[in-house]
# Entry
Amino acid sequence: MRPLPCTMSGTAVRKLSAHVVVYLLIALCLYPDDDYEEVAEKLTSMPASMPGARWEAPTRGAITQARQRLGFETVREVFRSQKDRLREAGR
# Structure
C-alpha cells in the first residue's frame, strides 16, 4: 500500500495517526449501527487488554478531529484505490 497523501503538515506524533484513522473509517463502515467510541473500542480492545497497557480508546471528539486532519480527498483516494483493487481481483 502506498503512503497516504495526507493534508497534514508537520510531524506531530498522535494516537490517531493517518493509517489508524483509515482503519477506523473502514471499521465504521463495517459496524454502521455503532457509534464512533464503540467501534474504536472494538479496534483497541486488544492493546488495552495487554498487561501494563495504558491505552484508552479515543473519544468522539478526537476521532472527529483526526478525520478532519486526514481530509476528504485522502479518504476518497483510499476507498477508490481499494475499490479498484477489488474490481481487479474479481476478474
